């Protein structure tokens, strides 16, 4: 089947094309990559157990998983942008700005948690919408636009705060990240819900099929009747919204918001999407791969911390992980062709 035929079949409506219903665990073209990263996670867990058996008690495992939840959420947003053939480099300061706004409005009060949360999410969505509009309507390259937006938001937040973030997240957010519901952190239940929701959306809905179609070939998708620009723009709204949610979650873990708190998550978000098997050309990838990659990265970084390796070494490891994932992806594509 040609690429254009694939696009047309995926972007067609259920009534006109009657596409085959796909299960939540139907990984499509990403099967090899997703299975590989889950196997790598299992191997990594065995190695970590051999090197640091103390990490494998319930509390330590939950800490690793909770730390991974923030990376999973930003990876979901970055994955949406990469899925349509773009990239979002504004994640660091979208995350930071949303966390600072959340803490500034909440001021440590549980009574203000919902207005603060809505404001933070709205800010992230607005930044994403601005990125999407400029990219799909003004034809500004995603790298240029999102990098510029990151700098704009950084300058605005530094100017607004005067270089000092104020406010604090409500105790309920800390309880959500570090507390327990049915024996595990509520944040893990949130990630489980997001995993099911995203898998269902990508595999069972018209929007999911059209999102993949736009990533494969936006021109062919438009000719097949899919609103390519709207769908591509929505991917950046998703990315901004996820960055904002991650900022709120990270403030709950840290107990505060601070300037630059999102900086480590730019490379991390790209790394987990790449390790999870997404193609930077767009159209291929699965959130289950991103989840496994985020857990593996959290486990790896925790293991490096136990060896007292400096932050510089951890950044080197992240960079090598991205390069290894990209090279592995090219090898898989050449093998499949």
Amount of beta strand: under 5%
Question: What is the number of independent domains?
Answer: 1
Largest sheet: none
- What's the alpha carbon Rg, rounded to whole Å? 20 Å
Give the termini distance in whole angstroms. 13 Å
Structural class computed from helices and strand pairing:
mainly alpha
CATH class, named Mainly Alpha
**Helix-strand string:** HHHHHHHHHHHHHHH
DSSP summary: helix tally: 15
* Apparent shape: globular
Number of β-strand runs: 0
CATH topology-level name: ABC transporter involved in vitamin B12 uptake, BtuC
Specify the helix fraction band: over 70%
**Average pLDDT metric:** 84
Parts with pLDDT < 50 across at least 5 consecutive residues = 11-21
Gross CATH architecture: Orthogonal Bundle
Please provide a written account of the structure.
The chain has 337 residues and is an all-alpha fold. The protein has one domain (21-336): ABC transporter involved in vitamin B12 uptake, BtuC, CATH 1.10.3470. 74% of the residues lie in helices and 0% in strands. The protein is built from 15 helices and no strands. The longest helix is centred in the last third of the chain and has 27 residues, at 228-254. The protein is globular. The two termini are 13 Å apart. Mean pLDDT is 84; it is low at 11-21.
